């Protein structure tokens, strides 16, 4: 094995590291940050005071991370579990103190046939393991979205309404 890249990712120890799609790397460090890297460039990151205002940095720390490609699963030293969108780090799911103490690892249920049985109609399933000797399954509900045909129908309705309003405001417009 040969080292191909070296850079400073965190101040202090790195608690966990996960490989993501498109050669991205996710790191969770003792400096209270979780970072997404492309080579040695920081793509985006999470800090407690930005992500969860009102909760002091020193009270929480990211402990475990996994990137499924679409989602980033995180566990903390206080037992909390979160799921974020991988590319934007928008939080979709959060359970404060899901475990009594440190979450030591998280893993997404694979989207294989047996994994689909656990998923049911949910968008993702994350397993968390903690020092409290418990393993918990966290299900991310499917996000609702409008069907494309309904969106097109709404747009057509808005265009017709705009034309009618312009015709009323400016007779002879058409």
From TrEMBL:
One of its GO terms (molecular function) is guanyl-nucleotide exchange factor activity. Its main location: endoplasmic reticulum. The keyword Zinc does not apply. It holds the Pfam family WD40. Keywords: Endoplasmic reticulum, ER-Golgi transport, Membrane, Protein transport, Repeat, Transmembrane, Transmembrane helix, Transport, WD repeat. It is found in: Endoplasmic reticulum membrane. The chain crosses the membrane at residues 146-170. The keyword Calcium does not apply. GO terms for cellular component: endoplasmic reticulum membrane. It is a single-pass membrane protein. GO terms for biological process: endoplasmic reticulum to Golgi vesicle-mediated transport; protein transport; regulation of COPII vesicle coating. SUPFAM superfamilies: WD40 repeat-like (SSF50978). This is PREB protein. It comes from Leiothrix lutea (Red-billed leiothrix).
